[in-house]
């Protein structure tokens, strides 16, 4: 009634709702995580059919809380597919954000997994440390999913790697993967 529910939904999710002439609903936001939370909350509200401002807030809050588990599960899937195990849960949640981010029109999860496969193959052919290459390839673009901090994706990625105490060769490969710094090891060249 008079857009009350739409305004409540937009405020709760930090997104904008667009409804076209065919009544298709489009959720708009530059933040892909907000968009995904809004999509999931909207689907639940439609199934529930009790759409009113207080129920909207309740469902959106519940969806936000549950989304941490979604990110963790996605991160585990991506890491497992890359052949990387035993990463800290917080790092897995960051990796899970890849699933909801694109870079140059490609889903970041698919991009990173393709990169890992290619890099591991090259590493095996040039006798580089495959484990270092595997982890650095998966994490070299982790800075792209960090929106809360200032800096380019390389600086942010290095910061994440240091925060989790990763091997210096992994940190160097992340720092050098765009050739902004001279390569310090064969693993950096491969990544």
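^ structure tokens above, recovered residues below v
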């Amino acid at each position: 009634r008079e857009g009350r529910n739409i305004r409540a939904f937009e405020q709760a999710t930090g997104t904008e709702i667009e409804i076209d002439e065919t009544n298709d609903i489009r959720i708009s936001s530059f933040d892909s995580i907000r968009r995904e939370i809004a999509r999931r909350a909207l689907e639940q509200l439609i199934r529930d059919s009790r759409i009113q401002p207080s129920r909207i807030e309740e469902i959106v809050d519940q969806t936000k809380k549950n989304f941490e588990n979604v990110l963790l599960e996605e991160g585990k899937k991506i890491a497992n597919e890359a052949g990387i195990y035993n990463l800290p849960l917080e790092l897995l949640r960051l990796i899970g954000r890849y699933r909801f981010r694109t870079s140059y029109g490609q889903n970041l999860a698919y991009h990173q997994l393709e990169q890992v496969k290619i890099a591991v193959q090259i590493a095996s052919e040039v006798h580089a440390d495959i484990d270092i290459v595997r982890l650095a390839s998966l994490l070299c673009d982790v800075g792209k999913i960090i929106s809360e901090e200032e800096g380019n994706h390389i600086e942010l990625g290095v910061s994440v790697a240091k925060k989790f105490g990763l091997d210096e060769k992994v940190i160097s490969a992340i720092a050098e993967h765009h050739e902004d710094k001279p390569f310090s090891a064969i693993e950096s060249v491969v990544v």
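The mean pLDDT is 94.
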